[in-house]
Amino acid sequence: MRKSADEARRTRDRIVSVAVNKASSLGLSALTIGSLAESLDMSKAGVVGPFGSRAELQLAAMDRAVEMFLEAVVAPGRGTGPGLPCLHAVIDAWCDYLTDSPFPNGCFVTAASCELDGQPGELRARLYDAVTRWRRFLAEQITAAQDAGDLAADLDPEDLVSTLTGVAMAANQEIQLLGDERAAARARRLMRAALTSHPEAIKGPSRP
Q1: Where do the domains of the chain lie, and which CATH numbers do they carry?
Q2: 103 pLDDT more than 50
Q3: Which spans in the chain are helix H?
């Protein structure tokens, strides 16, 4: 019984892995049971069986991609202190992730955001939740850095979250579309500059 359960789990993991790679290249909406069955040398029933439906398979692919992103980008910050040390670790890991993406089409979350932003449904809702949690995590670390005096207290955390996210999305395009080998280093520099540890430099000169 245990062997059967282990085999079922391995089969499911194998299907999801292939599904994530295909979705990265073709988009989640183009993910079909037939194409997966052909790639996996399995029957259509064997592919859809562990999930119950194509929609659930798409959600499983989305969840796996988000898990991979969080493990690659958030995990390195867990061994640091909260606030600026965590943000610096996350920025370095984020830029490394963009450079050596595990997905054929670069950052899965960025690609899925472009694909799904105008398509209401469960996939979009699942992605919305994941991106919202990620942005909340960044905002919490920014607030912790402000509490520690490493960032100016009057800065809006959401402004900085938007800045970091915008730089990352630009870098993903520069790496994937433009083939710019300097993109990751540029993104790291710009992100760190936005999170300088000198509050007065961030705020700039005071107005008379």
Answers
A1: 61-203 (1.10.357.10)
A2: yes
A3: 2-26, 33-40, 44-48, 54-73, 84-99, 108-116, 122-147, 157-176, 183-194, 199-203
